[in-house]
Amino acid sequence: MTESRLRSFVALADAGSVREAARRLYVTESAVSSAVTALARELDVPLVRREGRGLALTPAGTVYAAYARQVLGLLEQGRAAARGAADPARGTLRLAAVTTAADQVLPELLASFRTRRPGVELALEVGPRRQVWASLAAHRADLVLAGRPPAGLAATVLARRPNDLVVVGAPPLAAAFALDTTPWVMREPGSGTGAAAEAYLAERDVAPPRLVLGSNGAVIAGAAAGLGVALVSRDAVRDRLAAGLLAEIAAPGTPLHRPWHAVAGSAPTPTTLLFVAHLLDAPGWTAGGAPGAGVSGGEGGQDEGERDEPRREQHEGDGLAAVDGEL
């Protein structure tokens, strides 16, 4: 059960075909097929089955793929921890951030950190909240920047930074704002701010017209253009508010307090702690708990001011749809 066999199997599960898995791994299709076949023989269970003209994971394959991802993630984390233990300033840091945090919080932090610690190898994954928390759970990320971590996640909140969500709109629309009739522009399902906006409207039992846009920047631009009002981070629109392109609306129950969290696994690497120390030097960040403390209990690890935040979805195992190619 070698690392290369595990990588071939996970690549097949993620890519959806032998051909694409081979392309991603820079190996031949026969190498991927041989590796997965050998792995199935060693486990003595079938990992894939034919489905029409393609392949799909068996139930055993679906279960094993989740474990294989964690094993590979632990191996990468172990390498990063070993390098960091030898010299944290020359270690590896794998960051994962939700899109809004990547847009608003990370650019200046990463630029100043790279200037201060040029020997650290940085990798950044940007995606919706479900993706980044799944990466942390599978040991594919050393540190996540996002909202509150989901209940039950074996993780440590290392730092927090205030973040207020406010309702904004173009000045003419803001002046005529009515909670139940004014159109809203919002993020797609799976987005944290999109979920917060949906929950906000549902709690007030209103259903105004909605226009779903695919990015935080598009939502802000749409609000400035008068397409509707939006629930966004005040930090993201500070310049537009100052310039008069947007106006903050005194909507009932706002602002919503949704602090940013810097969250690591239960055993943060030395290089991760080096970045967190840099982060705590930045304005607004405060320490969020000692390593090993884990995510707080109670109401799903909620912080004060987050009681109305919708529960985050738990990560589900990844399946494999019918694909082309053969083993």
From TrEMBL:
Domain named HTH lysR-type: residues: 1-58
Region (Disordered): 287-327
A Pfam family of this chain: LysR_substrate
Recorded superkingdom: Bacteria
The UniProt record lists the keyword Secreted: no
Alphabetically ordered keywords of this record: DNA-binding, Transcription, Transcription regulation
Keyword Transcription: yes
Matching SUPFAM superfamilies: Periplasmic binding protein-like II, Winged helix' DNA-binding domain
Regions of compositional bias (Gly residues) in chain numbering: 287-300
Entries under InterPro entries matching the protein: LysR_HTH_N, LysR_subst-bd, WH-like_DNA-bd_sf, WH_DNA-bd_sf
Biased composition (Basic and acidic residues): 308-318
Family from the record: Belongs to the LysR transcriptional regulatory family.
Protein name per the record: LysR family transcriptional regulator
Annotated organism of origin: Actinomadura parmotrematis
Lineage: Bacteria, Bacillati, Actinomycetota, Actinomycetes, Streptosporangiales
